[in-house]
Design a protein that fits this description.
The protein contains ten helices and 15 strands. It is of the alpha/beta class and 327 residues long. It has a domain of 198 residues: NAD(P)-binding Rossmann-like Domain (Rossmann fold, 3-Layer(aba) Sandwich), CATH 3.40.50.720. The strands form four sheets. It has a seven-stranded parallel sheet with strand order 3-2-1-4-5-7-12, with helices on both faces. Strands 6-15-10-13 form a four-stranded mixed sheet. Helix 1 links the parallel strand 1 and strand 2. Helix 1 crosses helix 7 and helix 4 runs parallel beside helix 5. It is globular, with a radius of gyration of 19 Å. The structure holds uridine-5'-diphosphate. The site of uridine-5'-diphosphate has 14 residues, from helix 6 and strand 9.
Length: 327
């Protein structure tokens, strides 16, 4: 099968490209390089620079394609509340263009990057796919809307999709094949790394008065290589079963913010300069996934997501960038 990976120069997308190439898929990457990086591209995959808002270029990129993995979206929760128009354009109009272009070019399979943000405030500590859907930020709303669009395009146009609801994506390719770092990261582990390498002088823990054992928030951190494998399995599933699915991807195990910082300090043998700060709005105390459905439907199992692996692989990529620059 030939697969078009939209957003294949991005953080998760580049890991997906590697997994697809290793499995023997023919891969074409479509990316506007707004946040994706050339350094993340694989020479075995064809690259087309283009935007989801450019319908002609998008349709051309879909020539002779059997399936699509769509990961090109904006993902900063805070920004989505301040500038919803950006998210409406990228995450909704862009993705609807894709569904229309796929209809036009008769491409039948779509793997979509969704998010735990579709659930909103958790009513149970561990969430399965039937948990109520009440996004509390515009980013989560865009992901949920696209799941609904895909359900309609399945019914009306026969496009079969697997929507993957990621929990907290972390880590880097352990072979060191993917080295692009995100600029101005907001997520916990990149912030910890930037503090470690002196890119920022200190970091904040957003709240230590939660109802958790150490008072800081608990999240389900899933290694990006495990996420990538799920995309490959999802395409194989679509080809085999021709049935749409919505699946959580997490480990089921939670780690607190403090645990992430202290485990990093232990592994790198260096102190991290952090202070306690007020809670960030919209943060639930504990959010972990039940991924039983992905396990039984795709035969997927997280294999890279122990904390040591997650932290070491991330540290190595930051070392590669910042220690090399200093020499
Ligand atoms: N967090 C933190 N300081 C930071 C960034 C994040 O304390 O500089 C906390 C955040 O409040 C949450 C957890 O780390 O409890 C994971 O946040 P992240 O933004 O990485 O992912 P989210 O769970 O919001 O998708």
């Amino acid at each position: 099968m030939r697969i078009l990976v939209i957003g294949g120069a991005g953080y998760i997308g580049s890991h997906v490209v590697k997994s697809l190439l290793n499995t023997g898929f023919d891969v074409r990457v479509y990316d506007d390089l707004s946040t994706g990086k050339r350094i993340n591209l694989f020479k075995q995959a064809e690259f087309v620079e283009g935007s989801l808002l450019d319908m002609e270029s998008l349709k051309k990129a879909l020539d002779n394609v059997d399936g699509v993995v769509h990961l090109a979206a904006k993902k900063a929760v805070g920004e989505s509340m301040a500038e919803p128009e950006k998210y409406a354009n990228n995450n909704l109009i862009g993705a609807i263009n894709l569904l229309n272009a796929m209809t036009d070019k008769n491409v039948k399979y779509l793997v979509f990057s969704s998010s735990a943000a579709v659930y909103g405030m958790p009513q149970t500590p561990q969430l399965n796919e039937s948990h109520p859907l009440n996004p509390i930020n515009f980013y989560g709303f865009t992901k949920l809307e696209m799941e609904r669009f895909m359900e309609w395009y399945d019914r009306l146009k026969g496009i079969k999709f697997v929507s993957l609801r990621y929990f907290n994506a972390v880590g880097y390719d352990e072979d060191g094949d993917i080295l692009g770092l995100e600029e101005k990261p907001q997520n916990l582990l990149p912030v910890v790394m930037e503090t470690l390498f002196g890119i920022r002088s200190q970091m904040s823990i957003f709240g230590n008065d939660y109802d958790t054992p150490d008072g800081t928030c608990i999240r389900d951190y899933i290694h990006v290589t495990d996420l990538a494998t799920a995309h490959t399995l999802a395409l194989q599933y679509l080809e085999r079963e021709n049935t749409s699915q919505i699946l959580n991807l997490g480990t089921g195990t939670g780690h607190s913010v403090l645990e992430m910082i202290q485990e990093t300090e232990r592994i790198v043998n260096q102190k991290i300069n952090y202070t306690m700060a007020p809670r960030r709005s919209g943060d639930p105390a504990k959010l972990t996934a039940s991924s039983e459905k992905a396990q039984s439907i795709l035969g997927w199992q997280p294999k890279h997501s122990d904390l040591e692996n997650i932290i070491r692989s991330t540290w190595h990529v930051y070392q590669n960038t910042y220690e090399k620059n200093q020499n």
